[in-house]
Fold this sequence. Notes:
The complex is a heterotrimer. By secondary structure, chain A is of the alpha+beta class. Helices cover 24% and strands 15% of the residues of chain A. A 5-stranded mixed beta sheet of chain A has the order 3-2-6-4-5, sandwiched between helices. A two-stranded antiparallel ribbon of chain A has the order 7-8. In chain A, helix 2 (139-146) crosses helix 5 (192-203). The radius of gyration of chain A is 22 Å and the shape is elongated. Chain A starts with 48 loop residues before the first strand and ends with a helix. Chain B is 27% helix and 21% strand. Chain B contains 12 helices and 14 strands. In chain B, a hairpin with a 2-residue loop joins strand 4 (61-64) and strand 5. The longest helix of chain B is centred in the C-terminal third of the chain and has 17 residues, at 307-323. By secondary structure, chain C is of the alpha+beta class. Classes of the chains: A alpha+beta, B alpha+beta, C alpha+beta. Chains in contact: A-B, A-C, B-C.
Amino acid sequence: MRDRNDQNRSKPDFSRRDFLKGSAAAATATAVATQGPQEVSAANLKTNVFAAAVTSVTLNVNGKNHTVKVEPRVTLLHVLRNTLNLTGCKEVDERSADGADTVMIDGKAVLAGSRLAIECEGKKIRTVESLRQGEKVDEVVAGFVKHDAMQCGFCTPGFVVATRVFLDKNPKASLADIQKGLGGNICRCGTYQGITTCALEISKGGK
Amino acid sequence: MRPFEYARPQTESETLDLLNDHDANTAVLAGGTDLIALLQDDLQEPQRVVDIKQVESMHGVTGDGDGVKIGALTTLEEIAASPLLDEYRSLKDVVDGVRAIQIQQMGTLGGDLCHQPNCWFYRNGYGLLALEDGASLVAEGDNRYHAILGNQGPAKFVSAARFAPALIAWGADVRVIGPEPDASEWLPLEHFFVTPNVESQGVSILKPGQLISHVRLPAAAEKISSTYEVLQMEGLDWPLATAAVTIDLDRGVVREASIVMGHVAPMPWVAHEAAQSLIGQSVDEVSATRAGEIAVQAATPLRDNGYKVQLAKVAVKRAVLAAADMLEGAL
Amino acid sequence: MAERKVAWKARKDNSLIGSDITRIDGVEKASGYAKYAADINTAGTLFARLLTFKGGTALVKTLDTAAAEKVPGVRAVHVFNGVGKEVRWDGTIVAAVAADTPEQAEDGVRAIKVTYEAKPHWVDEENLTGATAAKRTKPLGDNQKGEVAAALKAAKHVHKGYYGIVTISHMCMEPHGSHCEWDGEDQLNVHLSTQNVSGTGGQFAGPLGLDASNVSITCNYIGGGFGSKFAADQWGVACAQLSKKAGKPVRLMLDRATEMKIGGTRPSGFIEVTIAADAEGNITVWDSHHWGTSGIAGSTISLGQLPYCFDGIPNRNRKATGISTNTGPNRAWRAPPHPQLCAVTDTVIDDLAAKMGANSYDIFMKNLDKTPKPDVYAEEMKIGAKLIDWKTKWHAHGKGGGKGAVKRGLGMALHRWGGRAGATTCTVKVHPDGAVETFLGSQDLGTGTRTVIAITLAETFGLGVADVKVNIGNNSYPKANPSGGSITVGGVSGPLRRAGLDALWKIYDLVAAKYKVPADSLTAKGGKILSAGKAVCTWKQACGLLGPMPLEVQGQGPKNDGLTSAGVAGVQMADVSVDIETGIVRINQLVAVQDCGLIIDELTARSQVYGGLIMGIAYALSEERVMDNRTGRFINADLENYKLPRIGDIGELVVHMYQPDSEYERGVVGLGEPPVISTGAAISNAVANATGVRVPVQPLTPQRVLEALKGGQA
Lengths: 207, 331, 714
């Protein structure tokens, strides 16, 4: 039970760190040569550790298991888009500040560009494609079409997924709730009016 | 991102063991809303990323008569939903200001407290201090979003921790574990943050191989609180200035007060004198305004961020009024 | 037989035109099935990453890609700017690496060794004095009309002011880029993110030494262009070259920071202006000098259209100075450069009204005689005023009262645009089984072009939208106009209507002969052919008369047949609240009254206006490129610090499409650009009305609002 050892020391003086933490001050001019992923033999590794090399990762996506071979540094977004050809979630920005890469993981809204694929083993991942079976579509998809909540369509899948998760959590959402919940998604074309109308219609139980 | 090992510990001690390999050139991965961006920009280059999301002991909110303990892996959504935190309104105010379901469901309290600065010089690779030949790029460059307090040394970025002001105003403690597997200590959150003089000091007292496991709040004891954030946008955005206030109001008179400003200095900024000025007063427009003025009277704005002095002053005033449910006429 | 006339149906006879029709590609987009350039995953596709210059301006001193070539997974390296080349702005591409995975491509980029010789940079687009001292300015014109000096003396009301609007980026959600794949040595297949499907093939062919007929361009879906994606661009050609070198397909998309820095910007403009009016409020004088930047070329917003829309002001001086900056070059940005022109004109007129103590609405109305379409503006203003309740809400500038720190105000502005139909050819094919399809090399930017095409043919043939198969997005189809200038809706609908009528009349002739009914009694509706209103046969039966071969008809445009025309007006009004303690501005309501001739799809037309309003909110309140003078860098080239509005930032948007019969009779006119033009000025005017103080430069960030309030300048 060592984890729960609450040593309560209230010391005002703490030793400051004194080490180099990564490349905090990268030079603008020179790039540093790098090697590829290290070859680490399994015998050197502890349990629960994956080497910095290609490894098998099994992901449950839209109800099916897929085993892919990726390095730990590969994002879920890249596996979904490039390996599994589920291109609905989009790559807009390396910092994932746009929401276009939103997917569902165990029912939560997750930015796939901010998740490593290897983090997602054992979870239930669902992408926007799961909201359609042939001609049958989720009410959010249908509502987006009905209220023309799209133009170029690039931000649309991320918005659809965020809206689906948001409404699952807030079935009776007000306008203010919707505006707060969906503030993580950017649309450049300006489709917020249609998205708002669609979300309000669903939350008010209309069709 | 450069290549790294990935580790998935199940316990705190396993976490420490894994964090301390490779000379502790490792990184803690919780919600990923900051770390992945830092890795993408090569601002951190750990040899191993340690995913702590399975560490049960760091999840959840528990309470006893003495207060509330929040695991560092508690998400924003869980904070908002926890009835044990209802009395700590200033915390829920912060959650309310994060307008994105993704961040609410992914982001953790520990991750917020450890969020690296958003300073655009830092994020563009110039370092926390952004020094070139000993001169500050921030001082000479566009510093509209930078510090107005605590900026007389080389550090001019603002702290990005959104929850810190409210937690500090409540007198919160934080539990730091490591580097040794059985090492842990509680310390006041106020002392967790650091204004660096050299690059290697970073923004907190965390040594390599250490991490936050919990935050503890004292009993609310009917104190009133509020966090007021000046946010330009209604959507997901970083505050321009914030103030968190906790007040012990006894029959209309302030007996104790704590005011902490955020996003105005390299660390959360405790406004001692401003809080003092409220003692023995009632909460009203006059006392709140005065507290705001005192909170910024020592401000040393840079060339482009003078407007933030006004914002910080207003944030303090409005936080004080909001704590007492007296805030009107504000957007 | 009565003469057959090419025309739209009488308004009351339409089945589809005039209603809300949902997009025919709506489900594809909303369910994530739509494939964009970066979604093409043909086997073996390599991923490209870029090494870009990060600084103000420099020469490439040394460049060594040898180590990059050896990185595991790297298949090809392409140098854009080698030793001795100038890299003149932040974000300039130095080299690209293509590898099996994106991560390996990044490893390759990191392995490139490059050093630069930094040169002095200039990136300040507003500081004219500084730019002049740094020898970065050039005169861009100076012309006069009438007698400015004399008229100023005679004027009753004179106002002098400073106004401006900063540079912004296009910010397409989908960056520029392409997927290139070779078929043998001579055939190149490109999935390109482009607004110019029909015109970009040659831009690949030339540099690659191919015949233009051997380059296939496909773009079924594009994630935003806004005027920035007309070309193959250096990086498009490089993608093809990487693919050739590697012997595999390559996907090269600009990363977000690079996209913002080099994918296109909208020029800035800062103006010192004197405006004057007589006692009745007729504007008699405009005297301005403006400056700004378009990048290294050192242009700014064009002189020739100032004062914007009010061409009839009789005495006018205007002068422009360009500032050359080390910044990414400008590209056409939605209605160029009208948003900036409006931002530095309608704000000035509004301040003149304030100075006169007059209602802004009255001064605009008074001076409509100086605009190209006074009657239309007058009608649109009346409608807008009613919708926003201008009469009740109006107060003198700064005199709105209100509790606490929040002040409320109204503002308006007006705009114009062309939107003449572009040059497009289409093929319409009617099969003997009744199936209908059309081919044209157009693109659909999100404006709803696919749907407009389907509606036009469906309306003509009396069918449903689902009965028409629309084939666009490939350059093997008949040539269509690039989508810029709001020329597409007219560009496609004219030829389709014409070709559709051509085909329909041939079918009518067959029906007339077979069923012994007069040809000119025939109409097509509800999937049937009718004679004098009575069903004669079904569409399928009629098509069966074609024989074994499909009927194929070409349509071409534009023509002078009244199907399309040009010239729109438009009025926008804003109701805002300003927190004068924090400088934060919130939109309460925006009202847009917009004409665009004959509207084919009401639903997607309104969406264009909503979209324009929201893009307007962006550049009015929060969107700006920040160039850091010290480092010369585009320091906010990311989506957190470059602030775009989100769903909670728009307030209530009210869109009224102005379409009396007089507009319907004009035929189709383009709509894609006008709704973004006057939004900034309307919002700025509303802020001035709320606070009594002009915030001179857009975007009206809290910083600028507080600084203006401190100065107390009206």
